[in-house]
Amino acid sequence: MAEYLGLAVAWLIPLLLVLLPLYALYKRVDVYAVFCSGAAEGLALLIKILPNLLAMLVAIEVFKSSGALDMLLAWLTPLAQALGIPADILPLSLLRSLSGSGALAMTSQLIDKFGADSFVGRLASTMQGSTDTTLYVLAVYFGAVGVTRSRHALAVGLLADVAAFIAAFWLCRLVWG
């Protein structure tokens, strides 16, 4: 069954690339014009959100390069250790709100270092699936729709990330001790 499913998945995209233009031809849709229109809208959206995205990326890099991240981790490590939270997971808990790809790379490093079946590996994986890139979402999506006053969105988003981190820790502690 898995072999047939794998074969179907492998042929799905090529099949769609053939069938969709044929269907558009049948419906008399000018595929090229629709494609160009969509590409133009995509570029306009990119130009609209690029300043927000660039500002967020610069702020993250300044935060890391200034040593503020290291200072924050040094401050949080004793508290985390007192609560039984592995200190190695703290950078991931902070980075996840900032960058999805950076958090994924850090999760991969933690799994390579500790193993996929270790408490740290399972906690990192659970955090990766239960939290979101809050600052990225605010910068890109709010920028895309023109939200200028986000009110409490940042505080609520970061609070949700903290709640997800705590829930992931306690769930992993409960299940894998």
Automatic annotation (TrEMBL):
GO terms for cellular component: plasma membrane. Pfam families: Gate. The keyword Coiled coil does not apply. Coiled coil: none annotated. The keyword rRNA-binding does not apply. Keywords: Membrane, Transmembrane, Transmembrane helix. Residues 46-146 form the Nucleoside transporter/FeoB GTPase Gate domain. The chain crosses the membrane at residues 6-26, 38-60, 153-176. InterPro entries: Gate_dom, SpmB. This is Spore maturation protein. It comes from Candidatus Avidehalobacter gallistercoris. The lineage of its organism: Bacteria, Bacillati, Bacillota, Clostridia, Eubacteriales.
